[in-house]
Structure formats: C-alpha cells, structure tokens
Amino acid sequence: MSRSSPTPRKGTAGVRLKIYNTLTGRKDEFQPRELGTVKMFVCGPTVYDWTHVGHARTYLAYDLMARYLLSHGYRLKFIVNITDLDDKVFDRAEAEGVDYRTLTDKYTHAFIEDLRSLHINSIGAFIRASDYLAEIEKQVQMLIEKGHAYRADSGDIYFDTSTFPRYGRLAHLTPAEIKLRRIDPDPHKRSQSDFILWRNWTQKGSPPSFPSRFGQGRPGWHIEDTAISIPNLGTEYDIHGGAVELIFPHHEAEIAQAESITGQTPFVKYWVHTGLLLIDGEKMSKSLGNVITLRDILHRCDPDTLRLYLLSKHYRKTFNFKMDDIPIFEEQAALIHGTVNRLKQRLNDPRRSGTAGSSSLNPQYNKLVDLFFHALNNDLNTPKAIDALISLLTKVDKDGEAAADPQLLIIILRMLSILGLE
Ligand SMILES: [Zn+2]
User: Fold this and answer.
1) Which of residues 323, 340, 370 is at a domain's end?
2) How confident is the model at residue 184 (pLDDT cuts 50, 70, 90)?
3) Which of 27, 109, 228, 367 has its CA 20 to 30 A from that of 352?
4) 84 CA → ligand 1 middle, Å
C-alpha cells in the first residue's frame, strides 16, 4: 500500500466511518466517546426457540461492524443480552412441562453455538436478564423516587411517559402518533402510552414470579436491557443495535428509562437498526411454517457462503431470503478461496524470482482496495465492498505470477478477515 493511500491502516484507531443513526435520521461521522474504545450493545434473542436466519442476518451485521472497528485498532466492548425472563419463555416452559431455566439454558447455549458456527465471534459477553434482577429492582425504584414511574391500581408499575418530553424522538413519532400505538393495554394506566416496568404477580397463580420490594412480580422487557447495559457499559455509550422493529417502543423505552435515571443525554450516541428479513417474499412466521433455522441452512451450505449471501444486501434494506440463491454465493466463496490459495502457492514457490513485493502496491489493485474501504466507510456498504473484492481477486487471478506480491496477500487477507471469511 502506498503512503498516500487513503485506506486506513491497522493500529491507528482512525476510521472515516459514517454510520446511519436512527436518532439523527442521517449518516453521522463515527467518533466514539472515548478515544480508541468502542462500547456496543445489541439486543439479544428471547430464548425459547432455535436461532433463525433473521437472527443470523442481524447479528452478522453487527459482527461485520465490530470486525471493521477492530481492524482499525479500536478496543471493543461488545455485549449481547439474553432475554430469559419473558412471558413467551414462561408460557413455552409451562407447555413443555419443564422449568423455565431448563428451557432457557438449552436455547441460550444453542444461540451462542449457532452464532459461532457462522463465525460470529466478536461478541465479548452474553448476559442474561435473570442475573440482573437486583439491578432491575434498583432501577425501577429509582424511577419511582425520581417521579418517572408509578404504581397503578392493578399493582403494576409503569413508566410515566408524560415526564419524559423526548419520548418518541428516536422513532420520530409525534405525541399524537404515539397515542395510536397501543402498548401494554391496561385501563389503570395514566396514559395509554405508558409502558410496563414491573408486572404485579401476587394474585396470579402460574409461576414463575420473582420477589421484590414491590411484591412478587415479573420485570418488563425494556428495563431488563438498561439493567444490563448501564452497569456493564456505563450511563452513556457508543452503539446500540437491534432489528428495525425494536425501535418503538423497546428502544424508545430504554432511552426514557436510562436518561430519566442518570439525567445524562444521549444515553447512546449511535442507534443502528437492521432491516427485515423475508422468506420468499413473506414474513417468517410459525403459522406460515416458513421459519428457517440457522442450523437448517448450515447443514446445506458452509458459513462463508451464508455470510456472503447475507452481506450481499445492505444491512438496512429488507432482505428477501431464497434457498435457491445459495448456489450463487457458493460459487463466489469458491472463487475467493481459490484465488487466495493460488496466490499463496505462488508466493511459496521456491522457483519464484525475488522481484515482486515492491514498497507500493500496483495502482490498479490499490484502486480496488480503496473502493472496498470506501464502501465500508459509507455506512458499511457490504454489497459494494464485496464487488470490489471480487473485482480485485478476478484481476489477481488473471495477472497470475505478476500479482505475486506478499503485500497484496496481506491486504487481501485483511479484507477477508473484516468480512469474516475464513
Ligand atoms: Zn433489547
């Protein structure tokens, strides 16, 4: 790589990344709060079933983001929470006649294993809500003390959205629009837009419920996430991710809770959301019987093929998944690995003359390398980046011996490692 190359280099912690921020509604220059360190939280699954291809697409997008930041020398603290306290979990456990912990242990382990099988290995910690019940209770109590939460006649504790004027800012909803979104229906609430923090379970028979200073109950979903993120990442951090359908009310509620507790804003600097995934043009659902698990696909293709397929569409766009498309990406994976192996062999060939490997890369290669990084800097445009990589590899293959430059190999391997291709 030439010295004048605009391509960022490893170890500089400098990246000209622009990232689409749901909060500001535009692509923002990425600048972490703390020099050289990125703190990132992504909403994890509710663990009562197998990991499906929609999950895979979401966590792969954040794995790509994490790999990109790591390749630029950032230290990364990346957490995914595990929603193991949830009515869907408890209902499934009851239906199967098992303790909810048996169910959540099984699917938590499966989730982590499934992500690893797709080489999603940038996540530093998976943290279960059930380990944070004391913190949940503490945060609910703080919200009550600060006048942001109240106990309704039903005994349930709600966040009072009228005390948080910024409510709706992330989703870009007006107060009138928020009123139309019905959440946690309860005639005892002060306002229909108020969301649940703690569900009173003293009168209800079916277990489980958890003891607290508010009586036996179950935590709300939104408070589980701030109870995990604040102690682990602090009162303000860099990136919060999740699928687009989590913007409202889930992420909106997280902001309301965190900023009301800490008085600091913004709780999170960059809110990043991944698009929907459809199966053959339809929403994936149990009732349609079109759910594809990650395990199903990885029985039929290798992880690199699936990564190339899922990254072939920009992370914010809707992805229409079709099993029939997989062979295209099998070919792409074969082309990539074939070229890289041939380049490695040429470089290892003892008959090779020592002329290759000058201080600067052939400008034609350099142009394509720059295209790759420019595409990723532009809100992680993986389709364009992969196109640049394929063009580069096609040229390298055509040039044969003339392309046998050890520097070129190092750069190509770095590009592959950012994409997580092994
Ligand atoms: Zn969440």
Assistant:
1) 323
2) confident
3) 367
4) 12
